[in-house]
Amino acid sequence: PSTLNARDTLAYAYTTAKDLERALPLCETTLAQREEVLGETHPGTLGSRNTLAFAHRVAGDLARAIPLYESTLADRERVLGDTHPEVLSSRAALAHAYVAAGDPARAVPLLETALAQYEQTLGEAHPDTLNIHASLAHARRAGS
Question: What is the pLDDT of residues 67-95, one digit of tens each?
């Protein structure tokens, strides 16, 4: 598991650096290995699925990113509970993908839910809460 954690972290770093030629294959192999070793709904596996979704989003392949984000959110809600920080992060990531795909109407309810949960768990002044406020405002503007 430590090696898989390191591989997932490296894949995320490649994605952030927009080195998608390295990121995408590493994301895919890491996810496959985590599914084999840990199972499909293990939190580590879900993290790798989220990293793969992020890589596809950065690559502009929203048709692949969105279903991965949707399944990750659903599985994280089931495995971790509705207000776990990783669930909140997944909800926001899916909303951002919807906005990027030109579908802010699907993003707004997710962001409204995320905002209420961030305020409840982290407080109104927490940087993550403020970021969700900004994302919600952006999604609402994009939808009007």
Answer: 999 999 999 999 999 989 999 999 999 99
